[in-house]
Amino acid sequence: MKSNKPGLDQAFIERQRKRLMKLRAEIVDATQAKEDEEASVNAQSAGEARESEDDAQRLTTLELDGNLVARDLQRLAQIKRALEKIDEGSYGLSDASGHAIPIERLEANPEAILTVAEQESRKPR
Asked: Using CB atoms within 10 A of its CB, is residue 6 exposed (0-12), middle (13-18) or buried (19+)?
């Protein structure tokens, strides 16, 4: 587990590994809680009469929850990749260019696998 990036010592990389694993567990737990809550609401309202406004609110909530789940799944994929990069010895280097990702970015966003500029260029416009 060596790092190809100068400036990232083994202690920093191990702290990041722990942060990533904790973050992954938190996201998985939160996702499970959302699913459990939705199942509970569905079970409670199964036999009740509903108004069309209730259905509209429910659809809006489901859409928002779906967006959050999609974001969480994307973040989990980045966390998985960052953990793989630690194992490969390439943590702190961009997947796209191989350029160093600034340590400040890694501290703020431990799952970062691209530089800020590369991340921005991939956003849909």
From this structure: exposed
For residue 30, what is the domain's CATH number? 1.20.120.910
Domain interval for residue 95: 10-122
Q: Inform me whether the pLDDT recorded for 67 exceeds 50.
A: yes
Which residue, chain included where needed, has tokens 């799952």? 111
Check whether 50 has a pLDDT greater than 80: no
How does DSSP assign 13-82, residue by residue?
HHHHHHHHHHHHHHHHHHHHHHHHHHHHHHHHHTTS---HHHHHHHHHHHHHHHHHHHHHHHHHHHHHHH
pTM of the model: 0.72
Residue 79 included in any domain: yes
pLDDT at 3: 42
